[in-house]
């Protein structure tokens, strides 16, 4: 390649890097994906992850939902009022900051955000108040934590980055609530993992109605949608939108789940 063309190609490459960096800061949720950042990690539950039921995202029984034990509770700054529910993080023990005896070298584990690790203001940030603001902290299911840490360590410094979530099958919806209050749990979301906005449309209407995040991965609508055929429109936190046409059949009842064929 002639030198002038090499320069042009390099400039182009630098230009697009700058552009994508600018786009990231404009649209990326907090924390930014694909950048290694520092945090700490502890574990909860038993070695059988018996405490992986429930959680502040509302996914329910994590085994039944297919999430297994690769799950974590996030501190306030990471949890972001539930906006982080469903996001995935690759985590490694940080040997530079840890007692090397407590790090398992050369391994990472990927966990999904399923829960909130509440602050404990009675304890200092550096001694038990691990999830206090402004600390980024992962309280992981024990089997996931033990992939990267040695039990005796208890708490380890980690490096983490957001990664796309990998899921089998389509996005799922579970409807709870009552007439004029539909609480829809959105789960099994691949890629970004987290949802930025959601709308609902019933088959007897032309109009999409916005839903609001109620708690965790639960979104609500105050319309009376009972037993009507429903479509949902989801936009994930990467800005991609999918329409789930007629994913809920006419005659549905509260407590039912619906598996779509679509995935991000
Ligand atoms: C909500 O809609 C359903 C189905 O159309 C209807 O049977 C029910 O009475 C409505 N609920 C209320 C409280 O109006």
TrEMBL record:
Pfam families membership: DPBB_1, Expansin_C
PROSITE patterns named in the record: EXPANSIN_CBD (PS50843), EXPANSIN_EG45 (PS50842)
GO CC aspect terms: extracellular region; membrane
SMART domains: DPBB_1
Highest taxon listed in the record's lineage: Eukaryota
Keywords: Cell wall, Cell wall biogenesis/degradation, Membrane, Secreted, Signal
TM region(s), chain numbering: none
GO BP terms, alphabetized: plant-type cell wall organization
Compartments where located: Secreted, Cell wall; Membrane
Main location group: secreted
Membrane topology of this protein: Peripheral membrane protein
Database matches in SUPFAM superfamilies: Barwin-like endoglucanases, PHL pollen allergen
Entry similarity comment: Belongs to the expansin family. Expansin A subfamily.
Reported function: Causes loosening and extension of plant cell walls by disrupting non-covalent bonding between cellulose microfibrils and matrix glucans. No enzymatic activity has been found.
Protein name (record): Expansin
């Amino acid at each position: 390649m002639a030198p002038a063309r090499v320069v042009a190609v390099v400039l182009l490459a630098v230009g697009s890097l700058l552009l994508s960096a600018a786009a990231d800061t404009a649209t990326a949720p907090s924390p930014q994906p694909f950048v290694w950042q520092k945090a700490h990690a502890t574990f909860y539950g038993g070695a059988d992850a018996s405490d992986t039921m429930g959680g502040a995202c509302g996914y329910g029984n994590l085994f039944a939902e297919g999430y297994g034990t690769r799950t974590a509770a996030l501190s306030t700054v990471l949890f972001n009022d539930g906006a982080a529910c469903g996001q995935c993080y690759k985590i490694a023990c940080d040997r530079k900051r840890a007692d090397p005896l407590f790090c398992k070298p050369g391994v990472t584990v990927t966990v999904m955000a399923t829960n909130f690790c509440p602050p404990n203001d009675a304890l200092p940030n550096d001694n038990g108040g691990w999830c206090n603001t402004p600390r980024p902290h992962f309280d992981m299911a024990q089997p996931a934590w033990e992939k990267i840490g040695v039990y005796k360590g208890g708490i380890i410094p980690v490096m983490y980055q957001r990664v796309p979530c990998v899921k089998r099958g389509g996005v799922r919806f579970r409807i709870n609530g009552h007439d004029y209050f539909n609480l829809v749990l959105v789960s099994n979301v691949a890629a970004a993992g987290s949802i930025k906005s959601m709308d609902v449309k019933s088959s007897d209407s032309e109009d999409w109605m916005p839903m609001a995040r109620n708690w965790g991965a639960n979104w609500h609508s105050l319309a009376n949608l009972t037993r009507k055929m429903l479509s949902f429109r989801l936009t994930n936190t990467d800005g991609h939108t999918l329409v789930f046409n007629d994913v809920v059949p006419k005659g549905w009842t509260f407590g039912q789940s619906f598996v779509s064929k679509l995935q991000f």
